[in-house]
Amino acid sequence: MAHAKQAKKRIRQTERAEARNRPVRTFTARRVRDARAAIATGSPEAARSLRLAQSALDRAAKAGVLHRNAASRRKSRLAQALKRAGAAR
Description:
Blueprint: H1 5-41, H2 46-63, H3 68-88
Helix pairs in contact: 1-2, 1-3, 2-3
């Protein structure tokens, strides 16, 4: 356990930030998971799922929950996966 006053405050701040960020992280992760599943199964809804996932990633980056480069990288990889799945058929 922290002893310094500043360290105790830091713990409190971190707990509040985690609570604030958790719903955004969960929402984003679910959208990405749904998109990956739709792409893997070849669902006709895959493109729509991709758009929803990209939107969620953008929102997470805007909120500061996810670094903008990380969000961009994930969006790119999802789009590549959709393109590969389309080319495979």
